[in-house]
Amino acid sequence: MATRASLSALSSINNPWPLPSIYYTTKPYRLLFSCRSISSSPRLRSRRFPSPVASMPSYDKELAAAKKAASLAARLCQIVQKELGQSDVQSKADKSPVTVADYGSQALVSLVLNLELPSASFSLVAEEDSGDLRKDGAQETLKRITNLVNDTLSTDGTYNIVVSEEAVLAAIDSGKSEGGPSGQHWVLDPIDGTKGFLRGDQYAIALALLDEGRVVLGVLACPNLPLMPINSVDEQYHENPVGCLFSAKIGDGAEMQLLNGSSPTKIHVSSTENPADASFFESFEAAHSLHDLSSAIAEKLGVQAPPVRIDSQAKYGALARGDGAIYLRLPHKGYHEKIWDHAAGCIVVTEAGGVVTDAAGNNLDFSKGRFLDLDTGIIVTNRTLMPSLLNAVQEAIREKNQAASLL
Ligand code: AMP
Ligand code: MG
After folding, report:
1. Residue in 378, 197, 365 with CA at minimum distance from that of residue 281
2. Residue 311 is among the residues annotated as catalytic for this protein
3. Is residue 26 annotated as a catalytic residue, yes or no?
4. Which ligand is nearest to the CA of 338?
5. Which residue's CA is the nearest one to ligand 1's atom 22?
6. Strand, helix or coil at 347?
7. 130 pocket-lining for ligand 1 (C-beta < 6 Å)
8. DSSP 279
9. Which residues contact residue 395 at a Cβ distance below 8 angstroms, ignoring those fewer than 6 apart?
10. Which residue of 130, 260, 293, 358 pairs with 374 in a disulfide if CB–CB is 3.0 to 4.6 A?
């Protein structure tokens, strides 16, 4: 076995993890610090010597790793949500909330991806960074996060590993990648819908993989989403079993399974052709999407049902299995959408037969870095409804802008 010193040297070049602070046994030790040269990496090797028949990678191993990472992160989040204390919640510089579960989830996903898919070129674009955890007074919080990460890793039973506080900080900061159009990049929102998480409502762990600028797989772990369809008039849905895992791989369709097991079943978006029968999703938080604009759009389309307002990309998951037919996301002027808020949801919906565009009808482009470069808003529906939805959205936006210019 390689010595700590030799591995430490390798790790500084090839790995985001600072070796001296991680303690573990042989197997994960090798996994975390395995160092593949460029010529021995199957992906890079195939680029330098392209095979005559170009075939798309299967991404099977990557999808399995993503499902495992998101499921474990969901387990950590569930524990925190059950016994959330005041000290578990902090405020970020932009005043948005962040919890020990956001940090723990990000660290855990990063660690699990590295354990499952050791790679010299690991790249992660994720929401959180460790800046606040490195400040004076954050020691207790960091300790709590580290304990949560270790407890959750140990529940899996396949990892004989204990990570240190330094390793947790490094795992969180491995999410600082800028992404972009070339190579592979994991994209993570460790808790999408933190405000919903704090209310005890919906949230999601959203993880996707970009390859050469395209989303090639996505996973949404939604610990509070009922297995049965969300029905806006059914107030009893909280009594249904909860905890859904959505997953999709490019060209392979989308699936859903229970978070705590069960085999996956294929899902498909609603086939509703008549907007009058279509219910629509939007953000619970009015600050995240213009509720008055979506209600004007719904009226134009003749949608009868009231909006279903839930937090997070659970909306994409619910739409992908046909609970509702439309999702409208119409942020206030000047807001820039981040790729981790849409990458996983987007592939789950498109692989379930749906369409995701901006308000100009353009596909979302995830190759531009950490942000999406969009015309106003994001709209999601099935193929049949998209043309009339797009018309209604554009008309409503025009009318809103005209009204504003008269003021
Ligand atoms: P949702 O739960 O659908 O409302 O979306 C939650 C996501 O909205 C969070 O992960 C944030 O990244 C994002 N967000 C934060 N502020 C805004 C904003 N002003 N407008 C739109 N989205 C926002
Ligand atoms: Mg988010």
Report:
1. 378
2. no
3. no
4. 1
5. 288
6. helix
7. no
8. -
9. 300
10. 358
C-alpha to C-alpha distance for 133 and 177, rounded to whole angstroms: 19
Q: What's the pLDDT at 168?
A: 98
The CA distances from residue 308 to 191, 280, 398, in Å, are 20, 6, 25
Ranges 48-62, 234-248, 334-348: which has the least confidence: 48-62
User: Catalytic pick from 141, 194, 272, 376?
Assistant: 194
CA distance 193 to 208: 17
358 Cβ below 6 A of ligand 1:
no
pLDDT of residue 261: 83
Per the model's pLDDT, the better-predicted residue between 240 and 275 turns out to be 275
Q: Is the CB of 286 under 6 A from ligand 1?
A: no
Q: Is the C-beta atom of 377 inside 6 A of ligand 1?
A: no
**DSSP state string for 179-218:** --SSSEEEEEEEEETHHHHHHTS--EEEEEEEETTEEEEE
Both tokens of residue 86? 């005041």
The pLDDT of residue 235 is 53
Average pLDDT, the chain: 87
- Residue-wise pLDDT for 32-43, tens only, equals 422 222 233 344
Give the span between the Cα atoms of 118 and 151, in whole angstroms.
22
**CA 376 to CA 43: how far, in whole Å?**
37
- pLDDT of 27 reads 35
Measured by CA distance, the residue closest to atom 10 of ligand 1 is: 192
The whole model's pTM is what?
0.87
φ/ψ of 329, rounded to 5, equals -125, 105
Q: What is the token pair recorded at 35?
A: 């160092």
SS3 assignment, position 225: strand
Looking at the CA of residue 202, tell me the nearest atom of ligand 1.
2
Backbone angles phi, psi at 185, to 5 degrees: -140, 125
* Residue 40, CB-side half-sphere exposure with 13 Å CA sphere: 7
User: What are the two backbone dihedrals, phi and then psi, of residue 89, each rounded to the nearest 5 degrees?
Assistant: -120, 130
Q: 309 CB under 6 A from ligand 1?
A: no
